[in-house]
Amino acid sequence: MDKGAGLCYHHPVRSRQRSAETVRSCERSAEMVRSFECPAETVRSRQRSAEKKEPGVRLKKQERARLRELSATYLKDARVQSMRRYRQHGRTDTLRHVKNVTRISFWLNRRLHLGADEPTLVTGALLHDFYLYDWHNKEEARYGLHGFVHPRVACGKARRAFDIPDAAAGVIRTHMWPLTLRDMPRSREAWIVCLTDKAVSLQETLWGRLAMQRERTGRPHRRNRRR
Q1: What angle in degrees, to the nearest 10, is found between the helix axes of 118-126 and 94-111?
Q2: Can you tell me the distance from the alpha carbon of 166 to that of 122, in angstroms, rounded to the nearest whole number?
Q3: What is the C-alpha to C-alpha distance for residues 41 and 209, in angstroms, rounded to an integer?
């Protein structure tokens, strides 16, 4: 056909190439859409991956269910969720910190057969830093020296917010011993949270400093080197 005749000229080979490109483009678009979908299996897989990355311990399925049951009331509360706004140690926010302490305390009690009361242990561990301010900000940390005063501040706010029992309040009030000499742990639950909090705090601090040092030197994280 004459191209100068004013009619559209369609080359058969180019038409087939354009059709193939269109099909591939549609397939890529469909793949992108599927990547944003989150079926139940994908959600469970991501949860398992997140648990593997979390510092500390791994709980059994029944233990995870029990821990979720005991902590559900508090984790649904907006005031508890607001703890993620405050930095705790390194790059760890306060909510992540208390969840780490709660999980490891629960695991220790189960694995070592310490015989602590689980509702008291979980409540005290989850609310032990329920002071609700940024202790790095001097204007917000108006109660005094944070390490000395925040256990009683957190205990008072937890009592007013959730009307927690005396045993759980004791866990919160004594978790900074021996810095707070007057408030010494006097129960199994309090001792578990007091010791676990120190171990977790040290790990979070060192891990955060290591991550910042690697960023300054431009060295990739150990987990990302093979990628």
Answers
A1: 160
A2: 14
A3: 35
Q: Cα separation of 227 and 223, whole Å?
A: 8
> In which band, very low, low, confident or very high, does the pLDDT at 132 lie, cut at 50, 70 and 90?
confident
pTM: 0.69
Domain ranges of the chain: 60-221
Cα–Cα distance measured from residue 146 to residue 137, given in angstroms and rounded to the nearest whole number: 11
Q: What is the pLDDT of residues 164-206, one digit of tens each?
A: 999 999 999 999 999 888 899 999 999 999 999 999 999 888 8
CATH for 60-221 is 1.10.3210
- Cα Rg, the chain, nearest whole Å: 27
Q: Which residues contact 192 (CB under 8 A, 6 or more apart)?
A: 105, 108, 109, 114, 116, 121, 125
d(CA 121, CA 109): 9
- 216/57 Cα distance (integer angstroms): 30
Residues in the chain: 227
Q: Which residue has the tokens 């990302």?
A: 224
Q: Which residue would you say has higher pLDDT here, 160 or 15?
A: 160
